[in-house]
User: What shape does this take?
Amino acid sequence: MKYPVRFLLCLGTIWCSLLPAADRPPNIVILLADDLGYGELGCQGNQQIPTPHIDSIAKNGVRFTDGYVTAPVCSPSRAGLMSGRLQARFSYHTNVMPHTVPGSNLGIPASEITLAEHLKTAGYRTGLIGKWHLGSRKDFNPIHHGFDYFFGFAHEGRFFVRPPYDGVTTLLRKKPLPEGAKNQRWYLPGRKIIYHDILGNEPRYDLNNPMMRNNKVIEEKRYLTDAFTDEATKFIEREKKQPFFLFLSYNAVHSPLQGADAYMKKFSHIEDIHRRIFAAMLANLDDSVGAVLEKIRKVGLEEKTLIFFLSDNGGPTKELTSSNSPLRGGKGLMYEGGIRVPFMAQWKGIIPAGQVYKNPIVSLDIHATAAALAGKPLIPNRTDGVNLIPFLDGKNTAVPHEQLFWSYRNNAALRQGDWKLLKARGKWQLYNLAQDLTEENDLSKNEAETFGKMKKDWNRLRKTMPEYKGK
Assistant: This one.
């Protein structure tokens, strides 16, 4: 007999409320940064910009050296994260930018069961705070995809402070610059605005992209990173007596580049204004993560909460200065710098503190892990991830994935052990990451047997998915 989803959600809520506190499933918190490069945290080797709060997640839990996302750009990566499936399985290849096409039909399809929808069936309260980027039409609103509460915006970016940009220093991309501009920059010191001649003009981020609370348009005057943090701490306080899933999806450090005055002053020693604004944004993000972690401790939930921190893709270095060191490439590319990201997790008392885990894992594993912990494990054909906890608490010494697969538009990759097959600009390449982390030495001719086998494996997997018909 089939029961309606609403009935199952009701049963899940009753089940959770009847459990003793000690037996309740853990809270799940995902802290997602935007466009943060692999090398931009203290625990990843950056000594220029302190990030003690984000680093503490690795210190108190595990840092994944080989943590991946499913696409090198925002929207497909988020589709994989939310669905727990390779987004190519449901033909999600577009980095949705619906602010240019109001009412766009691009977004996560209703056929996909989001992590929020899955956890609701286990009685969780669910909240999304921040950037969604999985569709802006009414039916794509997060409250129609499993979230009880939504505070944020739908598109790929938004001004942290809207014009006239009070309280921040703002860098905007602009072509061409006015005559007489120097060093590819035009500076308006009275307004603290820098126009920079990089990568075309700044997109009209706020066009058809209002701030929303659930399905209501609101005005928001706080610096967005701070606003999202305030809303997140309120959500934790409000939902602390029952299991909750919080997806705190920051738009920092995505453009437009806007550094708050206090943080700009903190990094006044950085001469490059471009880099200084980025440092201000990252430090602001780090303090915000610290406030969320402190709130979890303050309400006594540290031992009852599994926390993940990761970025949605690699950093666009030229645009942001966001470094992917020591990796090659960045956002938009299938080289390691585009898909390998800062990735860590903490669960006090369960995940051994200070662990460095070197086997490859992927963002899809978050969905599978959360579902298993909620007592609602996904059936194999509904997930491409694995429950990570047995691999982190020592109960399973195998590798989580024999292969990791990527397909984004006409770009491709496959990782198997130390071998990495990739397709970039129409050319297939092969690298040994253990010997060549920077992917400089293409071994496709020298290792013809491995190269041929991995191409066959990639093609075999791709044939199980809908054909990509784009350009």
